[in-house]
Amino acid sequence: MTVTPDLGELAAQHAANFRSNIYTPTDLFKIVNAKITTQNEHLNAFISIANEDALEAAEAATQRIKSGETGALIGIPIAVKDLLNTAGQRTTAGSKMLEHYIPVQDSTVVQKLKDAGLVIVGKTNLDEFAMGSSNEYSAYGPVHNPWDLSRVPGGSSGGSAVAVAARGVPLSIGTDTGGSIRQPAALCGVMGLKPTYGRVSRFGVVAFASSLDQVGPFSRDANDMADLLQVIAGHDEKDSTSSLEPVPNFKSAFNRGFDGVKIGIPSELLQEGVDDDVLESFERAIHEFETRGAIINRDISIPSIKAALPVYYLIAPSEASANLARYDGVKYGFSVLDGKNAEEVMSASRGMAFGPEVKRRIMIGTYALSAGYYDAYYLKAQKVRTVIQQEFATALNEVDTILTPTTPTTAFEIDSKINNPIEMYLNDLFTLPANIVGLPALSTPCGFSDGLPIGLQMVGKAFGEADLIGYAHAYQSITDWHKSEPVDR
Amino acid sequence: MKISKEDVIHVAQLARVQLSDSEATKLQQDLSLIFGHFESLNEVDTSHVNPTLHASGEQIVLTSGDLEKSHQNLRQDKIRRSLSPSQVLLNAPRTENGFIRIKGVLD
Questions:
Q1: CA of A15 to nearest chain B CA: how many angstroms apart?
Q2: What is the ipTM of this complex?
Q3: How far apart are CA A196 and CA A242, in angstroms?
Q4: pLDDT per residue as tens digits for the range A4-26
Q5: How many domains does chain A have?
Q6: Helices A222-232 & A108-115 angle (0-180, nearest 10)
Q7: What is the fold of B1-40?
Q8: How confident is the model at residue B66 (pLDDT cuts 50, 70, 90)?
Q9: pTM score of the predicted model
């Protein structure tokens, strides 16, 4: 090692440094491991930090570089949300239910990361079973926002966002069911992408709401994001909902700029409940696009978009209540030892091991699906979902992308919303429509308010991730918001 | 929307989640509030639409008229290795002689 690796570098720069033999993946891994171990004492971004396995992976990557292999991300350290199965390495889903769960096989995304030579340095903290918008619902304690330790990082992929924001790793993996990648990306000042439903395999990802869940990348710039999405995207025969749509080159729109790009703004969504500073940053970003040739359309309308919130909070808990039925204390997971019969053991185990938000959602879902209520709630929500899909399709016939702020506010104080579920759910107002309609959506930093980051969300056409990453690339070439970093935490 | 505590206890039994008395009280309040917000769905006219069956509208599930086209979506029918018994039992809380042991189903 002639130079100590700088953790402020992007993945692409580390890769270039490996090839110039300035340092090796093994050198970089050791620095990353030490840094995230130290940071974890105050950030709590990781539930487990990998040692021997990760060191072996780093050494294997070092050999691959030496032998001249050219994969873009060989040897790059990455953090993975503790919702994706890692063979032989504990996967908790942020729950006491899976505190000691050791998967016997890798999720497809983890397998792809390993095949591409990435080094998984740890499993990141999250809201229990990915249910939450603040990371306060983890059974392993809250994650702290590196921009202000008294504030939440967002959720549910809070640990993955913080790991990248605090410069522990250049890349991480999260999952997004209603904004769980984009919302923490916005609150932590990094990039996050929810791909089109079906773009990335869900095999081996602990299921929350199967018609909404999607795995996606966190990064600090568009170039790194394109490289990571390139690794994880594509059809998987182990997931029948993964799409057969061909995987394009995700950097194919990097030279396009904004000239003639048609941008739609759903003005009806911005009329209330959005902080002034957030709106101001959003309008400034729109102005940047406009001065560089984009055509701004403020008349697009998605009349039913406000129904997205109740639709989401019916569909997601309903699917969750069915998915979480598998945690019965029999096959795996927490189990009480005593009980009169099998049913009592099951109820007691679930009562003890599930946290308050998971119980609340199981109850919402079970109630909504129970006899006599199915038509009024779940079926009605699935019909309104169709209406919202039709409205988005109409809007995206007129424009190339729909822009909103990613969140209505910046990061809030830990404990400030925990007792008010409705207020907590309102955080996801701008992000959850993309899950309901299955479209890709990206968040990139676009400003600050009182030292806290603000995110800009772009929603694209189905399988249009390359366009979104291209717009973000163009935006990042004329602004520096994505380069700001928190004081060394 | 008023949900009674008896409703909450009944639904908790259906979901096999044991609740303390204070949890049931809190959930009664939360569910009443949350289901009250769901009433706004009735403002959307859905008399002429079908419920969503797939998030991005892609045809993956087999339908009878679609067999030919669907074949390309299906994986080949060939024998492959499945998990070993020891892998399957690795995470089970109680095992005995290669089986999972549970409490009696009937009292």
A1: 36
A2: 0.90
A3: 10
A4: 999 999 999 999 999 999 999 99
A5: 1
A6: 110
A7: Histone, subunit A (1.10.20)
A8: low
A9: 0.96
